[in-house]
């Protein structure tokens, strides 16, 4: 199994935690659980098609990732909507969700059809997830009370999202250049992305594990 | 060459962004740890302060018990011993004149004993406060001291609300403590006490022209700790106004608790 496949299938581990501990998870963490389960299904199907179909048309798996990118945005947007306390931030999240969905549809119609890799939607999502994470950190910083970070599942989620999306944003922003360039650049960048993706799934795993232990959500004061 | 630059740009950019994100998280964890240390220090300082207040409270109680014990032993005990002697001689008295004289003396001693017991009990729970309230009790206290002619107490107030008795007692004891301190340690000749209400807050401004806190070193002494302890019971605080060069100036505040029963009306 190569690094890319390993990275792609690593999401199965947090998905198993999500399925096993689903009932014990707090309401907000259920969004993360769904995200990992959907991600695991998408990655399993995509890898299956890629490895077991010879026909080029049957091997097409980008549409699954395109759908997943939209589902991922909706789930994380709603998760942070529940986590963030400030009313203004909640309004921003609602606005961003509407704008993102409009952008995703327009992108499919005008720039990147459904059967091509929707990198625009993905890098816009990357920036948003970095923003969500920073908003959560900012919420914790504005609180004067100490939070035990190891027992805060949102901290683990935010840290993972920040680490992965800050780097992946560069990759997906440059996708069009990478496709046109030689294979070495493609492999180098994808290998790096696979490593960072492993880090992300590791953080998802810890986040769900901590959430499943029914640690209380950090009570962050309204700033 | 162009491909090499692109590889550097993408791989370098991704790595840099990953490290930058790691830096943000590291900063955040460090900040949280610092916050935890600050909170622990603050909690320890508060605990130490509470212990100091508790200690001061115990010492104050012990001092009060000693004073009452001394008063009972030196005054009431001595007077009762004298009365006992008189009664012993009453039996042995031969003439009716002598009997009358001894009886009168014994009665005088008993009167004095009763007065002494009354004074001790009044000190424990000031009757004037119970009967007339905080303002009149302080006026009474000030009048007695002003009568000596050596020290002048200026007392002003705009209190209109009927305060909870426990609150009155606390403020009475605080006033007593400050005046005692001014007389015993500070050698003050003029003491100004102002009570005023501001919304739901009772403010006491105290000032004297004594030696101040630097010389008599009572800032951390039992007296001020007692005051602080009583203020903390009333969710109040004590501040030292800036710019006061001579004597002692204090601003004490507490939330107003109103009298809900008619017991003390």
UniProtKB/TrEMBL annotation, chain A:
Taxonomy, superkingdom: Bacteria
Transmembrane segments: 6-22, 31-50, 62-84, 96-114, 120-141, 153-174, 194-212
Coiled-coil stretches noted in the UniProt entry, renumbered to this chain: none
Entry keyword set: Membrane, Transmembrane, Transmembrane helix
Protein name per Swiss-Prot or TrEMBL: YhhN-like protein
Classification of source organism: Bacteria, Pseudomonadati, Bacteroidota, Cytophagia, Cytophagales
Automatic annotation (TrEMBL), chain B:
CDD domains in UniProt: HATPase_UhpB-NarQ-NarX-like
Top-rank lineage group of the source organism: Bacteria
Stored InterPro entries: HATPase_C_sf, HATPase_dom, His_kinase_dom, Sensor_HK_TwoCompSys, Sig_transdc_His_kin_sub3_dim/P
Primary enzyme class: transferase
Gene3D superfamilies per the UniProt record, alphabetical: 1.20.5.1930, Histidine kinase-like ATPase, C-terminal domain
GO CC terms: membrane
Span of domain Histidine kinase: 67-258
GO MF annotations, alphabetized: ATP binding; phosphorelay sensor kinase activity; protein dimerization activity
Reaction catalysed by this enzyme: ATP + protein L-histidine = ADP + protein N-phospho-L-histidine
Transmembrane parts of this sequence: 6-31
Enzyme Commission number(s): 2.7.13.3
Keywords: ATP-binding, Kinase, Membrane, Nucleotide-binding, Phosphoprotein, Transferase, Transmembrane, Transmembrane helix, Two-component regulatory system
PANTHER family given in the database record: NITRATE/NITRITE SENSOR PROTEIN NARX-RELATED, NITRATE_NITRITE SENSOR PROTEIN NARQ
Full protein name: histidine kinase
Organism: Roseivirga pacifica
Species classification: Bacteria, Pseudomonadati, Bacteroidota, Cytophagia, Cytophagales
């Amino acid at each position: 199994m190569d690094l890319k496949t390993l990275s792609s299938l690593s999401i199965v581990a947090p998905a198993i935690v999500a399925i096993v501990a689903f009932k014990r998870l707090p309401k907000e963490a259920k969004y993360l659980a769904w995200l990992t389960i959907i991600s695991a299904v998408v990655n399993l199907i995509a890898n299956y098609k890629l490895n077991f179909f010879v026909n080029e048309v049957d091997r097409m798996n980008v549409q699954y990732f395109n759908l997943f990118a939209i589902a991922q945005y909706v789930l994380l947007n709603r998760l942070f909507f529940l986590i963030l306390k400030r009313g203004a931030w909640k309004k921003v999240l609602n606005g961003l969700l509407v704008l993102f969905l409009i952008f995703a549809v327009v992108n499919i119609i005008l720039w990147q059809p459904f059967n091509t890799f929707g990198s625009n939607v993905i890098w816009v999502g990357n920036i948003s997830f970095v923003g969500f994470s920073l908003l959560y950190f900012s919420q914790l910083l504005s609180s004067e009370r100490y939070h035990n970070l190891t027992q805060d599942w949102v901290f683990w989620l935010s840290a993972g999202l920040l680490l992965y999306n800050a780097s992946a944003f560069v990759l997906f922003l440059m996708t069009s250049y990478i496709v046109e360039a030689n294979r070495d650049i493609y492999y180098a960048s994808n290998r790096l992305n696979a490593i960072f993706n492993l880090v992300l799934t590791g953080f998802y795993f810890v986040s769900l594990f901590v959430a499943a232990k029914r640690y209380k959500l950090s009570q962050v004061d309204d700033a | 060459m162009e491909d090499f630059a692109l590889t550097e740009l993408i791989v370098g950019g991704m790595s840099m962004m990953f490290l930058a994100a790691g830096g943000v998280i590291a900063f955040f964890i460090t900040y949280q740890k610092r916050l935890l240390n600050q909170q622990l220090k603050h909690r320890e300082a508060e605990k130490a302060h509470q212990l100091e207040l508790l200690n001061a409270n115990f010492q104050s109680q012990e001092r009060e018990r000693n004073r009452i014990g001394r008063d009972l032993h030196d005054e009431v005990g001595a007077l009762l011993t004298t009365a006992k002697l008189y009664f012993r001689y009453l039996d042995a008295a031969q003439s009716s004149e002598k009997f009358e004289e001894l009886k009168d003396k014994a009665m005088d001693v008993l009167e004095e004993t009763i007065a002494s017991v009354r004074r001790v009990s009044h000190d424990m729970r000031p009757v004037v406060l119970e009967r007339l309230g905080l303002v009149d009790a302080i006026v009474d206290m000030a009048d007695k001291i002003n009568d000596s002619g050596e020290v002048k107490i200026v007392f002003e107030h705009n209190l209109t609300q009927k305060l909870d008795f426990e609150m009155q007692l606390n403020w009475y004891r605080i006033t007593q403590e400050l005046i005692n301190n001014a007389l015993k340690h500070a050698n003050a000749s003029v003491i100004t006490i102002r009570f005023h209400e501001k919304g739901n807050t009772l403010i006491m401004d105290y000032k004297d022209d004594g030696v101040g806190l630097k010389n008599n070193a009572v800032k951390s002494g039992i007296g001020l700790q007692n005051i602080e302890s009583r203020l903390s019971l009333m969710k109040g605080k004590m501040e030292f106004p800036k710019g006061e060069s001579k004597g002692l100036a204090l601003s004490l505040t507490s939330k107003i608790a109103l009298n809900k029963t008619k017991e003390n009306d």
